[in-house]
Amino acid sequence: MSPLDGDGNALCENWNSVFFAEVEGGTEVILDVHVMNFRPEFAPNLKGMPAGWSSSLDRLGELLKSAS
What we know:
InterPro entries: START-like_dom_sf. This is Activator of Hsp90 ATPase 1 family protein. The chain is α+β, with helices and mostly antiparallel strands. It has one domain. The protein has one helix and two strands; from the N terminus they run E-E-H. The chain has one helix at 43-67; strands spanning 13-23, 26-36. Strands 1-2 form a two-stranded antiparallel ribbon. Strand 1 and strand 2 (26-36) form a beta hairpin.
């Protein structure tokens, strides 16, 4: 899935791979993101992608902790 503009057009093409590994009784998540063919107006968003993904994964971790 890629982000869309106000008219529903894709702002970029991307693919993501997610890898899970058991580490010391927990789970390590490795995310591999590739963004291709992005539109110029999307360029500023590229800088924030690592922080955005980290925040999303941190929130997922907190949700999983509270559910167990």
